[in-house]
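Lecture notes, structural biology module. Today: joint structure prediction for complexes of two components.
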Amino acid sequence: MVNLVLNENMKIYRRVRTWILVGLMAAFVLFVNFIEWHSDGKKAEGVGWRAALQQENQQYSEILKQPDLGEDDRTFYQERIAINDYHLEQNIRSTDGTMWDGVNGSAGMMIVITIFTIIIAGDSLAGEFSSGTIKLLLIRPASRVKILVSKYISFLLFGMLLLLTLFIISIVVNGILYGFGYMDLPLISMTAEGEIVESNMVLNLWKTYMLNGVSTVMYVTMAFTISSAFRSSAMAIGFSIGALFAGNIVLEALQRFDWSKYLLFANTDLTQYLNGHPFQEGMTLSFSIGVLTVYFLVFNLISWLLFTRRDVAA
Amino acid sequence: MSNEPIISLSHVTKRIGRTTIIDDLTFDVPQGEIFGFLGPNGAGKTTTIRMIVGLMSITKGEILIKGKNIKTEFEQAIRHVGAIVESPEMYKYLSGYQNLVHYARMVPGVTKERIDEVVSLVKLENRIHDKVKKYSLGMRQRLGVAQALLHQPSLLILDEPTNGLDPAGIRELRDYLRHLTRTEGISVVVSSHLLSEMELMCDRVAILQRGKLVEVMPIQEFTRKNDQTQTYLIQAQPPEQALLTIRQMDGVQDVKLIQDGLVEVNTERERIPDILAGLMKNHIRIYGVQVVSQSLEERFLEITGGRQIG
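The predicted structure, tokenised, for the full assembly:
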């Protein structure tokens, strides 16, 4: 099994296109962070963070005076004020104007990781069929299930590589732009019980990565299933990336139907439970995890059935 | 050495939808034999080979390789098989050596030395670290042979192995296969639609037509006449009279006049002097007698009934 994964890795990393994808990933992170810093970050350095937070609190207090403010918004602004006050009292600066502002913002670029990993996963099996190498691959003492699993592991590893690229480059580039001075700045947040806590910024970042990673894994699994079912890279890559972008549009159109909460797209974004605004009333984190697990199992079952049972004819 | 066949097919049938592609194939290949599959395009040669290596499922019957069932004991059975299924497609973006490493990793016990050994066997030492996309077709074929032999298989399966090889390459492959069967006792199953090639290569041939096994026989038997009579051409003047004279004789068949004053006759060798004497007695001038040797193609068409794609 280890050997099979080594083989799959060789087939991924000995190709120029893989390194182009990794290079593009790095370039995107550099570019976006630089633009952010150029347009926003420099300003934040100018004004003191204390002044900025005080100003923010004033604005929030104004908003809270509005009588027709919704319940959700009211609690949101109250929380923000409490957190800002904590910053001011404990003399812990906010992330504005520090490297963490850029690093945390870069986590949003995980969609690029999803797209690039879909490209590798969608071509992984279909590519072997179109080049004809599948024949020589399958006449070895390794069952088709093992081949399937080794391929799956190999592009999850590729996704991890892209994630590490994102992490390291965003730390380094933001460190250079803003300075590494606030490396150990804690994250101030409020728990569900209304308690203000300090937590490690890096740990929190990886928590965000992992939550976003769930969606990556789902779309990549979908691409692999299509790749296995239709043996066409173009279809697997095109359809999965299409679904990734069209998903939200479809959701908006279908939100009024109760059953739309069972759609894959409604559940891939687990961060919806962090900010407390789920797609539909009554959806919970465990509901989404349940739905995702079912999709995950169904996708893999289809891949397995279609790959192990069908003849290799062409 | 055991007498157990290396590969044994019994009542193998393949159906796709309602069409029967392969119909009840049964044959064994003993150790050290080169066994040929002959048949027109579409007869089911490639399908049979794909079932043997497990790329296609078997609708009915079973295939045993060294006693292991390819369906239920795939990993143990396929371990003994090396194969080229149609043209050997390799990973073009990898070097020849990396391709071999790739396949070596999939079978336990293939050492680095063994890789070097097969590389020198197929004479690719100088180019083995080049990317496969820079290889010529002949070099790709040789790399294909190398990957098939890498794990020292007991059974080598070659589907149209000479496609794309030049005459020297074909000869080299042939000599090499002979060498493998004689010295290492490897059995070879090879398919081709080129009869002359099969005649030089195989010990036994199976003739496949429309998915059915028409005949299995040693190659000598296949190329030899199946009976005692042969066709002769007699050049005589005047031909019309010669025709009438021969027709009246005993032990002759299919006497007919063909162009240029040639009379064709099917008879036993011993009847020829009598026929000639008879002609001379009737004052017919004889200019020549010629044996028409039946070509492999004709023999093949005779066996398969002349129908090409069924």
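Point to remember: The CA atoms of residues 44 and 211 of chain B lie 5 Å apart.
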